[in-house]
Design a protein that fits this description.
alpha+beta, 2 helices, 29% helix, globular
C-alpha cells in the first residue's frame, strides 16, 4: 500500500490511496532504473521512496509489462 498524488494543477497536496509495485535494484541502483524507464518511448513514470523504485498500479497497463521488464533488465545488464 502506498499513497500517490493526484498531480500539480489544482490539487498539488491531495494524497490518493493506491498500491505500488516496489522494485529493488541490483547493481544499477534505483536512480539508474528510474532513468531507464523515463528514457523509454513512451516514458514510464516511476518514483523513488525508501530506496525502492515504485510503480503505481493505477498508472500501469498490463500491455506495458513487457516494456517495463525490458527497461529494467536493460538497465541492469548495462552495468559492467
Amino acid at each position: 500500500e502506498e499513497t500517490g498524488q493526484i498531480g500539480g494543477g489544482t490539487a498539488p497536496a491531495v494524497d490518493l490511496p493506491s498500491v505500488a509495485v516496489a522494485v529493488m535494484s541490483g547493481a544499477a541502483g534505483v536512480e539508474r532504473l528510474e532513468a531507464a524507464l523515463r528514457a523509454n518511448e513512451p516514458p514510464i513514470v516511476a518514483r523513488i521512496a525508501r530506496d525502492r523504485l515504485l510503480l503505481d498500479v493505477r498508472t500501469l497497463d498490463e500491455a506495458d509489462f513487457p516494456a517495463i521488464a525490458a527497461c529494467l533488465r536493460g538497465a541492469e545488464e548495462a552495468i559492467p
